[in-house]
Amino acid sequence: MNYRMIGFLIGRILLTEAALLALPTVTAILYGESPMPFLTTALALAAVGLLLGSRKPRQSAIYARDGFAVVALAWILMSAFGALPFVLSGDIPSYVDALFETVSGFTTTGATILPEVESLSRGILFWRSFTHWVGGMGVLVFVMAILPMSDGHGMHLMRAEVPGPSVGKLVSRMSDSAKILYGIYLVMTLLEIFLLLAGGMPLFDACIHSFGSAGTGGFSNRNLSVGAYGNAYYELVIGVFMLLFGINFNLYYFLMIRRFRDVFHSEELRAYLGIVAAAVLAIAVDVAHLYDSFAVSLRHAFFQVSSIITTTGFATVDFNTWPTFSKGILMVLMFVGACAGSTGGGIKVARMLILGKTALSDMRKMLHPTAVSAVRFEGKPLADQTVRSVHVFITVYLMVFTVSFLLLCLEGFDLITTFSALAACINNVGPGLEVVGPMGNFSGFSPWGKLLLSFNMLVGRLEIFPMLLLFAPSIWRRRLIRPVQNGI
Questions:
Q1: Which residues bind K(+) (predicted)?
Q2: Which of 88, 291, 418, 456 could pair with 296 as two cysteines, CB 3.0-4.6 Å apart?
Q3: What stretch of H or E contains 121?
């Protein structure tokens, strides 16, 4: 374990967070609010960051376990410091509540403890939603895009942070890959802001909802979320962009370099769009009797399916009032999630496809024991290690979910609220059902319950292993080990 290099990298990350606080500081000044909560936090971050990251150690090599430690510690510390503006401004006096809100922001979950948000200061509202944008593509991917970093460092950090069954380079250098990803991310965000402005949405609101769509987070500056506008154009723009941000960003790069065949032949993309289409149609038919026309039910179904499968969490209606079948579909979509390599959460469509293909292959072997049946994905045979990694991920995911669920049951809420609250947090969705539904919030949970759910949000966003490995004694030993491949 290279402690000095871990400290150096975390110091650079905290300095980056200090710089990011410039935007909400400017926002607060523009709206005549005190910038001190942001300036004070930025100074604290800068002091700690300079202490840790002022001098690069001579031994700069990092290994896989170092990468896991850096990613997990960086997300915890960024959330811990990021909660300070909420407390210092007085908008969220309780630090535990502020930490829950900040973790929810950075992990792009969108779960909130706030019963209403419109009374919050503009600077705080901006910071609250801007954490979605920063956390969406990945905090460390952002650092890699703006700071010089060797490929050896970048690969371990990117594998530990970027969601999906596998992580690779778009181009020869990992830092250049990070720049390409964030370039695409920025352009798409600006395009959504422009389209919302073209429809008449105020600039501040357009930025807030674009940050939430891009990071698939779901924080809004309206108590009724997107439904407060009652505008079909806004719903269409935000709904489409949520779906777009739920697609693997590698495919956008392939479009840029004219590799259209790779895009059109993507199994995960076809499955993702197919699931969305089937879910929208099924829900639209099921809720048609609740609305004036089938077109309206189709519009609401599309928006909610787009919001839930991408784990964004925006809402236009209270789907708590929908029939059980429709709520059941949305609950399933919480677990399915978006595509690997996107800003969305959940288990991911790619893993679902691999699990399904593996199950079919094993059943064929039961019928024909001597037959050779390779599992293929995206037109290529899958390595046994990749299949095993997916199985390990699902196994550990279920173990964490089960233990967390039993602990959360001690809170005393009804079964649906408890189950959906945990599902919404560990899958980074945001709203659940019943008490924590789209018109509810998480304020009723005790402080330890909020900390447990915050841990689950981090576990879900970092895809389990970086957070769990923090508790493994072997990760903190000084003896260096060979780099290992993280194919999960």
A1: 108-109, 217, 311-312, 428-429
A2: 291
A3: none
Q: How far apart are CA 395 and CA 403, in angstroms?
A: 13
Answer for the pair 320, 438: CB distance below 8 angstroms, yes or no: yes
Q: How many CA atoms lie within 13 A of 245 on its CB side?
A: 38
Looking only at the bridges linking them, the beta strands covering 380-381 and 376-377 are: antiparallel
Q: Is 316 annotated as a binding residue?
A: no
The reply, when asked if residue 217 is annotated as ligand binding, is yes
CA–CA gap between residue 268 and residue 265 (Å, rounded):
9
Chain segment 275-304, per-residue pLDDT in tens:
999 999 999 999 999 999 999 999 999 999
Amino acid at 191: L
Rounded to whole angstroms, the Cα distance separating 113 from 97 reads: 7
Q: Which residues contact 438 (CB under 8 A, 6 or more apart)?
A: 225, 313, 315, 317, 318, 319, 320, 431
**E runs forming strands in 312-459:** 376-377, 380-381
Check the annotation: does 428 bind a ligand.
Answer: yes
**223 assigned ligand-binding residue:** no
Give dist(CA 352, CA 250) in Å, integer: 19
212 CB neighbour count, 10 Å cutoff: 33
pTM, full prediction: 0.90
Where is mean pLDDT largest: 155-159, 165-169, 390-394, 421-425? 421-425
In the block, tokens 């506008």 appear at: 229
311 marked ligand binding residue: yes
